Amino acid sequence: MSESKGFSSSFGAIAAAVGSAVGLGNIWRFPYICGQYGGGAFLLVYLCFVFFIGMALMITEFVMGRRTGRTPIFAYESLVQSPKQRLWRYAGLLGLVTSFLILALYLVISGWTTNYFAESLVGAHIGLDSVAISDHFDFFSTSALRPIVFIAVFLLITGAVILGGVQKGIERVSKILMPVLVVLLVVLCVRSATLPGASAGFAYLFKPDFTQLTGQGVLAALGQALFSLSVGMGVMIVYGSYLPKDDNLLKTSIWITVCDTLIAILAGIAIFPAVFASGQDPAGGPGLVFMTLPVVFNSMNPADGLPIGTIFESIFFLLLVIAALTSAISLLEAQVAWGEEYKKGKSQRTRNTIVICLLMLALSAILSLSNGVCGNFTIGGKSLFAFVDQLNSIYLPPLCSLCAVIFLGWVVDKEAIRDELSNHGTIAIPWFKGFLFLVRFVAPLALIIVLVTGIVNSL
Ligand code: PFF
């Protein structure tokens, strides 16, 4: 598969990176943790983390990727200043392992999403009450075969995009799907916001309630900021290596961060007013999307005639499939690109993609089975799924992020960073000192606090 390496335009680059950032984290996770930890109060803290720490990390990864044009392990290796520092390549390896594990979990939830989209198309949830819908979810997510079939379908689509290459696959698909995602989301927001009784949903989401904002909530805000911006596992190093050389890295990062945050807020608006309007429990947690929302959509169906609620249900799950797809693409690309670089020069994209997809399918299938038939196999009293989920949410991303900021802030030559951020001195970067301060002190401190508290709480 020969094509010039990298994205062909700034718009394509931003679409692909926003595609990576906008995913299940925005539409499935952000709304429920925002509601859980005090609505507007959580939002304020989240915004600070996203714009200061999350964005500093994104710029860090972009600098490492674009400066070296390489994937994480090799990017770390190329930026060290003495042979002793080559050990830093293990930080890149940690990122690669983290993105592999995250992708395996992500595929399980994406498989559920694809199944729910297919079910909504044939009206499978019509007429079911909330108990029946919860039972349905429990039965489906713990069954052996069906979730794996849908993981395979989703993975096949993801793999096909990766086979298309960076420009003709990732960039082209992102440029089409991201605008579609925004349109679908706006349609759902308008429907949700205009339902009678919707205002209670807005209050839940936006009215600051500082009594709900616990220390746990503050930690959740930082964890969510990292996950949502796709930083902390080297994926943005890979995308950074594809960025056009004359892109202004600060501007690109601001675009991605603003789009990602707006979409998370819009997802909250699409969900909570409708949940309140239909009298459902907003604190559905992780099951909100699969157990609460189908009931909400059912309640919009008229007694006879066109099942309009079910049509909105299909739109919602299509939106979620698209969001998950563009994120999964970036996670898979990180693996495939590493494989290509490892085999230096030989174009092995097709073979790598197939091998990695098969490995991913096997791991995701095992994780899926650990929710059901293999539930007896536990690690520290947790199912394999819950164990990997804990690794991915508490330990690995903050640890990888910490490595990246310490590396850029304390190991890499400052002049090289300045040169990269200013596009070889062609743009002014009056914010450079502030950025360095964030990367050297603020971000490491925040990440150490998150990491230590996470570890202590989980013991
Ligand atoms: N940012 C994605 C989301 O919010 O769902 C998840 C994600 C994608 C995390 C890619 C990390 C990553 F490298």
Account of the 3D structure:
With 459 residues, the chain is mainly α. It is 75% helix and 1% strand. The protein is built from 18 helices and two strands. It has a two-stranded antiparallel ribbon with strand order 1-2. 51% of the residues are buried. The model has no long low-confidence stretch (mean pLDDT 92).
Oligomer: single chain
Radius of gyration: 22 Å
What structural class do the secondary elements suggest?
mainly alpha
Number of domains: 1
Amino- and carboxy-terminal Cα gap: 48 Å
Count of DSSP H/I helices:
18
Beta content comes to: under 5%
CATH topology: the name is Hydantoin permease
Which parts are unreliable, with pLDDT below 50 for 5 consecutive residues or more?
Answer: none
H/E element sequence: HHHHHHHHHHHHHHHEEHHH
